[in-house]
Amino acid sequence: MSAGPESTHVSSLLKGDSLHQQVLASFPLCDITEEDLTQNPQFCKLLATLSQHVDQNGLTVPLKAELEKAEQKLQSQRRHWLRSESLHKGLQEMIQDHCIRKHHATVPPDQSMFYETMEKCLLVAQCVRQLDPSSSTNQDQPSVLGLNPQQVLELMPSEKNVQRMKQGLPRELEKHLKKKCLSLLAYYQPEWENESEGLKNSKLSHLSAQLDTEKKRAESLKETCRENSVLLQRQTQLYLSEVIKCIQLLQSLILDHRLRIQTDLDRKKLDYFEGKCDLVLQKIKTEMVEIQLDTYTVDSIAAHRKIREKLESELKACQVEKHSVGLKLASFEILGKEFEALADEYCRLRRDIEMNNWALKEFTRCKDK
């Protein structure tokens, strides 16, 4: 297999400094950057060679030729369909305009006959097309309402009226289309609406060329916009990659700087917190002293001192009494369990005596009442 032209092309590209830009321009839809091509030179050569066999959309040269041929055929069929469809729409618009005029003014009988004949012909032709299966449909399909095209053709107007309608149709259709073209001209260039008929006709003859120029200009602007969009996307990727590199560099600088000053920063923070803790402790002590000064005045301190002395004397007396009672209990414990039973009996009798005394007092008080 000979690779002479391809190798010659690649070598010619490698001689220049814009190989990467040419590859990126040849494949604008690929998400690759110049850095990717720099890191992968063999892949860059492969893309440079591949660009001779495919277009910017990834289509091969034979496939692109077939696609263009199919596109031309499609455009031809589309123009044929649009021609017949626009003619049909124009005839329907003429019929609608006639119906509107008929409701607002008196229409001559021959003109009414012309439009009625045309409307009937259109309806019959539409029905025949619906009933007559084409080559792409099933020939055995059921008919609508049991009708066939021949039966519908019998509803056509008389041959005389049809011939008369056909003779006047080109003139009426020309008037209608000219009216629509003038409306389009008035919409496209409103300043020409009040000009003379001849000037409008002259301007109308150049309208299609102007519209074609405007269409080509719009397509050119759209293509330029698409190229600018691709370029903007590529530049955005480059910008983001550079920003990421800058952020990583800043992070490394910040980390190194932080590690160097971390010890001094920790020591300063420790000194700060120690000083703040001492200040808070001194403030707490000050608040406690202020609370004590506000709570214990000279009179309250003297009163508390007297209360303390009295409580201490009572405490001493209670301690002496506790000591004597403890000695008595110790002497009683020497007597053993028999004395404990007598003590319990004594306590029970004391409770009974107290209960009887209380009952006697209550009885006496109730008796006196």
Automatic annotation (TrEMBL):
GO BP field: centrosome cycle; spindle assembly
GO cellular component, one term: HAUS complex
Domain of life: Eukaryota
Pfam families: HAUS4
GO-annotated molecular function: microtubule minus-end binding
Identification of the protein by name: HAUS augmin-like complex subunit 4
Organism this protein belongs to: Zoarces viviparus (Viviparous eelpout)
